[in-house]
Design brief:
The complex is a heterodimer of chains A (115) and B (190). With 115 residues, chain A is an all-alpha fold. Chain A has five helices and no strands. The radius of gyration of chain A is 17 Å and the shape is elongated. About 8% of the residues of chain A have low confidence. Chain B is mainly alpha-helical and 190 residues long. Chain B has one domain. Chain B is 69% helix and 3% strand. Chain B has a two-stranded antiparallel ribbon with strand order 1-2. In chain B, α1 runs antiparallel to α2, α2 packs antiparallel against α5 and α5 packs antiparallel against α6. Chain B starts with a strand and ends in a 7-residue tail after the last strand. The mean pLDDT of chain B is 92. The chains are: A mainly alpha (115), B mainly alpha (190). Chains A and B meet through α1, α3 and α4 of A and α2, α4, α5 and α6 of B.
Chain lengths: 115, 190
């Protein structure tokens, strides 16, 4: 996502928001990945088999492990890029909240089955 | 008064970690909303900041314990493979629910939703704890960030609520049972 440095008149520039914004967007990405990998595993038997990391738990083990890995890696990358920076929060918070809302909807089986 | 080991661990997962997390959510939402709003007049003390930081970390620990025990301890018992020729489905909750048209949706919607949506809670609250520890009282200077964190904490509450509701209903229709029997109390003779 392209971000721009903004100036804020309230004195907030003393407290860069890049670290918080990175955590926020990464959480949106991680949440969405739970739904994304769950749908992938549901639609493809080959992917479902690949997602069985721990047999007693089945594909859920792979779905959640992959989502957590994507979340943590994206968090580390974004935090590194935005460390000490003031970023424009509007598009970042909107994207994170949209991803979170989508993950809530797409984990609901009747909606996921429509895809 | 007896309880099986599997029932006890299901209780620890649901009532211990899950329900406690749900209760804690209201405190975090109220505190973040009231004390960290941009127009908040009362100064935020270091002790207040430290307390909420610790509170959010404790919530994150609870949320992770709830999903990890759910996925790696309880869920394998729930989806236990039915040996050929088994007639009594009592020890196979998933199979028991799927055996009747009146209960199959508790699995195909309830468990299928619960097992995935529950993971939004630890991800969201870990983020909230990390952002709070990093920004603390400065969140009042970043209202968009504070509002987004509040939104995530609220969704984590909803996700945990969905998981908790279906967990309770699933355990009502097809309880996870088995394992060693633990005698809690010796009753009087009838």
């Amino acid at each position: 996502m392209k971000t721009k440095t903004v100036s804020i008149s309230s004195g907030a520039q003393d407290f860069p928001n890049g670290g918080g914004a990175a955590a926020l967007l990464a959480a949106g990405i991680g949440s969405f990945m739970v739904a994304f990998f769950a749908i992938l595993a549901d639609k493809s038997t080959a992917i479902k088999s690949l997602m069985i990391f721990y047999k007693p738990t089945g594909a859920l083990s792979g779905v959640t492990t992959c989502a957590i890995l994507v979340w943590l890696v994206s968090w580390a990358i974004l935090a590194r890029r935005w460390r000490g920076r003031m970023v424009s929060l509007g598009p970042i918070t909107a994207t994170a909240l949209i991803l979170l809302g989508l993950s809530l909807l797409l984990t609901f089986p009747p909606i996921a089955d429509l895809l | 008064m007896e309880i099986t080991l599997r029932s006890l661990l299901t209780l620890v997962h649901g009532m211990g970690f899950g329900a406690l997390y749900l209760l804690a959510c209201s405190g975090a939402i109220v505190e973040l909303y009231r004390r960290y709003s941009p127009g908040s007049l009362r100064p935020i003390e270091v002790e207040d900041e430290r307390f909420l930081g610790g509170y959010l970390v404790a919530m994150a620990v609870l949320a992770w314990l709830a999903v990890l025990t759910g996925a790696y301890v309880i869920y394998p018992w729930y989806r236990a493979v039915l040996p050929p020729g088994t007639v009594d489905l009592a020890g196979f909750p998933q199979r028991l629910l799927m055996a009747s048209p009146s209960t199959i949706e508790w699995h195909s919607i309830g468990m299928e939703w619960k097992e995935h949506v529950a993971w939004l809670a630890p991800i969201s609250i870990t983020m909230a704890a990390a952002v709070f520890i990093r920004h603390g009282r400065n969140l009042t200077r970043h209202p968009q960030l504070r509002n987004a964190v509040l939104g995530f904490v609220f969704v984590s509450f909803v996700a945990a609520g969905i998981a908790g509701f279906f967990g309770a209903m699933l355990d009502k229709y097809a309880p996870v049972q088995g394992g060693q029997t633990i005698q809690l109390m010796h009753g009087e003779k009838p």
